[in-house]
Write a structure and sequence with these properties.
eight-stranded mixed sheet; alpha/beta
Length: 542
C-alpha cells in the first residue's frame, strides 16, 4: 500500500483532493500496508523467471517491490529483473533510493499522470493500491476518473488504479492486485472484472482464507485479482478460489460439470430469482442487543405486542417452506430473539419501551451510525413488505422461504418482495427449485466461500439464483411432504423430494439419472468448499 498518504498535509492523494479533517485514521485513508506473508505469496505467483520488468504503481515502503527483487535473486544468480516504482510522496521515493539499486527506476509522480504511451512497457504489475472509497473522493475527481475509465457503480480509487495499470503491460503480461473484498460482490467490482476478463487470457479472483494482518491493524478483508495474458483475451470465465499462500491460483470452471446435458437443459429452462422478486437487506437496528428480544425479555420489560414486530434473525429460524408467527413464538419461548422493538412512541417514563431503550446510553447513541441516521433514533423503519426471506450465510446451501404477513427479517437475511404479477404457485416453485439439487449446485457456483466453510450470498448474487417455474406448479402433497422433512431436519431427503417435484417436467423420464449425477457433483463441490479448497464449480452467469 502506498505511503502516498504522507501528503495528507496537502490534502491530496494521487492527485485526488480531500479535506484534511476528513482524512483521519488509517482505515478512512485506505492505508492498509501489505503484510509480508501476503506479499511473499503474491510475488511468487507474479515473478517466474527473475528477468521480468515490474511496475509497482503505489510503492509506498516497498511492500511488494522489495520481496519481488529478493525473490528474483532466488530464481537467477544474476537476475535481470528491472522495475518502475511510482509514488506521490517524495519522502518515500527518497527512502527507497537508499535501499534499491539502479535496476529500479524511482518516479516521484501521481500515477495517473504517468502516460503508458511514453513509459516502457512491463511484464508484471504488482499493486496494493489505495482502498480509498468513492465517497472520500471529491465530486470533481470522481467525475474525472469515471470519464477516463467508465465503471458502473460507486467505484473506489483502487478500481481506477487497476484499469490504468493494465495499460502499462506488454502483450502477454500479467498483474496481481491486492484489493478490498468488495471486488467480489459490488457492482463496480463486477464491472472491473468483466473489463479485465475481456482483455486477459486468464482471470482469477482469489479470496484470502483469513483476514490479513494488515500493518496498522486495519479491519478489512482482502482479495487477490490475478490477471494473466494481457491482450490474449477474452478469458473463458472468471475463476474463483481460495488463496493458499503458495503462489498457485486455485479454483476454476469444472467444464465437465457445467456441460452435462441435464444441467444445460435445466439452466436453459430457469430464470433468475431477480426477475420475479425484488431483494433487499433486512431491517437494521443499529444495536441488536437492545432491539431484539426473546419471550422472556418481552415479559420482563412488560412490552405491549403493539410495540413489537416478529422477525427472523438467524438462518436456523427458517425451518420449513413457510415461516409463520407460530414458528417464531415457539422459538421465542425457547430463548431465540424473534421479536424486534418497533414502538411508534416512547410512552410514559418508566414504561417497558423506555426501560429497554435506556440500555443504550447517550454516548453510544452518538457513536452509532445507524442510530444517528434515524429520526427519532429509536424508530426502526419497516419499508415495504416482506413476502419471503433468502438466507445470507449458509452451511449446506441457501434457502428461500415464504413468510406470513407481518413478519420481517433482520439484515442477517435478505428480504424478498415478489413482483405483483408473480403467482402464488410460482412463489412456491421458486422455493422448491432453490432447494432442489440443481438449485443447490448452482448456489455453489454463484455464492462465495467464507471463513469456516460457509457459503455467503450478497444481494446481487442472490438475485442470480436460478429458479424453475412451469405451468403445472408443484403439487400440494409434495409441498406438504417437503415441508415436513425440512422441519424434521432431514434436509437431504427434502432436497430429493424437491428434485422429484421439479425435474420431471423439464427432463422427462431420465430425471432420476440426472438427479443422481447432480447429487454426486453437489457432494464433491460442497465438500471442497467446506474444506476451504478452491471453488470446484462455476455457474457461468458471467
Amino acid at each position: 500500500m502506498p505511503n502516498e498518504w504522507g501528503v495528507l498535509a496537502r490534502g491530496e492523494v494521487n492527485g485526488v483532493k480531500m479535506g484534511v479533517q476528513e482524512l483521519t485514521g488509517r482505515k478512512l485513508l485506505g492505508q492498509f500496508f501489505t503484510p509480508a506473508f501476503e506479499a511473499n505469496s503474491i510475488v511468487s505467483w507474479a515473478v517466474r523467471t527473475g528477468h521480468e520488468y515490474i511496475l509497482e504503481p503505489s510503492v509506498g515502503e516497498g511492500g511488494l517491490l522489495l520481496p519481488a527483487l529478493a525473490y528474483a535473486r532466488t530464481l537467477h544468480l544474476a537476475p535481470a529483473v528491472r522495475a518502475i516504482a511510482c509514488d506521490l510522496d517524495k519522502s518515500v521515493i527518497d527512502g527507497l533510493s537508499a535501499t534499491v539499486g539502479p535496476e529500479v527506476d524511482l518516479i516521484h509522480s501521481d500515477f495517473f499522470e504517468l502516460d503508458p504511451e511514453t513509459t516502457a512497457r512491463v511484464d508484471v504489475v504488482l499493486a496494493n493500491p489505495p482502498f480509498t472509497r468513492n465517497h472520500q473522493l471529491s465530486a470533481e475527481d470522481r467525475a474525472r476518473l469515471k470519464k477516463r475509465y467508465p465503471v458502473k457503480g460507486a467505484a473506489g480509487l483502487w478500481v481506477y488504479f487497476a484499469l490504468h495499470a493494465r495499460k502499462f503491460l506488454r502483450p502477454g503480461g500479467r498483474m496481481a492486485f491486492l484489493v478490498p473484498a468488495a471486488a467480489s460482490f459490488s457492482r463496480y467490482g463486477e464491472d472491473l472484472l468483466l473489463q479485465l476478463k475481456a482483455e486477459f487470457r486468464e482471470l482469477s479472483l482469489q479470496e484470502l482464507p483469513k483476514k490479513p494482518s494488515w500493518i496498522g491493524s486495519a479491519d478489512e478483508r482482502g482479495v487477490l485479482v490475478l490477471a494473466d495474458g494481457y491482450r490474449a483475451g477474452p478469458a473463458p470465465a472468471i475463476t474463483r478460489g481460495v488463496w493458499r499462500y503458495d503462489g498457485v491460483a486455485r479454483g476454476g470452471l469444472s467444464r465437465a460439470y457445467a456441460k452435462t446435458p441435464a444441467f444445460e437443459a435445466l439452466k436453459k429452462a430457469s430464470r433468475p430469482l431477480g426477475e420475479i422478486a425484488d431483494l433487499g437487506i433486512g431491517l437494521v437496528t443499529g444495536r441488536n442487543a437492545v432491539f431484539l428480544l426473546n419471550q422472556q425479555d418481552v415479559a420482563r420489560y412488560r412490552i405491549d405486542q403493539h410495540d413489537l414486530t416478529p422477525v427472523i434473525t438467524r438462518a436456523k429460524h427458517v425451518r420449513g417452506i413457510v415461516v409463520d408467527k407460530a414458528d417464531l413464538c415457539g422459538l421465542g419461548h425457547d430463548g431465540e430473539k424473534t421479536w424486534m422493538l418497533t414502538p411508534r412512541e416512547l410512552g410514559e417514563r418508566g414504561s417497558g419501551v423506555r426501560s429497554r431503550l435506556a440500555l443504550i446510553n447517550a454516548r453510544e447513541r452518538r457513536e452509532t451510525l445507524w442510530l444517528n441516521k434515524r429520526s427519532p433514533w429509536w424508530m426502526v423503519s419497516k419499508t415495504g413488505r416482506c413476502d419471503a426471506v433468502f438466507t445470507y450465510m449458509n452451511d449446506k446451501g441457501p434457502r428461500l422461504a415464504l413468510v406470513e404477513d407481518g413478519i420481517f427479517c433482520t439484515n442477517t437475511l435478505h428480504q424478498v418482495t415478489f413482483k405483483q404479477a408473480t403467482k402464488e404457485c410460482d412463489r412456491l416453485s421458486a422455493v422448491i427449485s432453490i432447494l432442489s439439487t440443481f438449485g443447490q449446485l448452482c448456489a455453489e457456483g454463484i455464492g462465495r466461500g467464507y471463513g469456516g466453510g460457509l457459503l455467503k450470498f450478497e444481494l446481487q448474487e442472490a438475485r442470480l439464483m436460478p429458479i424453475l417455474i412451469h405451468a403445472g406448479g408443484v403439487a400440494s402433497e409434495a409441498i406438504f411432504d417437503i415441508d415436513k422433512k425440512l422441519r424434521c431436519g432431514q434436509t437431504d431427503e427434502a432436497r430429493r423430494l424437491a428434485d422429484a417435484a421439479v425435474l420431471p417436467a423439464i427432463l422427462g423420464a431420465e430425471w432420476r439419472v440426472a438427479a443422481r449425477e447432480l447429487e454426486e457433483m453437489l457432494e464433491h463441490v460442497r465438500g471442497a468448499r467446506r474444506r476451504g479448497e478452491a471453488r470446484q464449480f462455476e455457474y457461468g452467469h458471467d
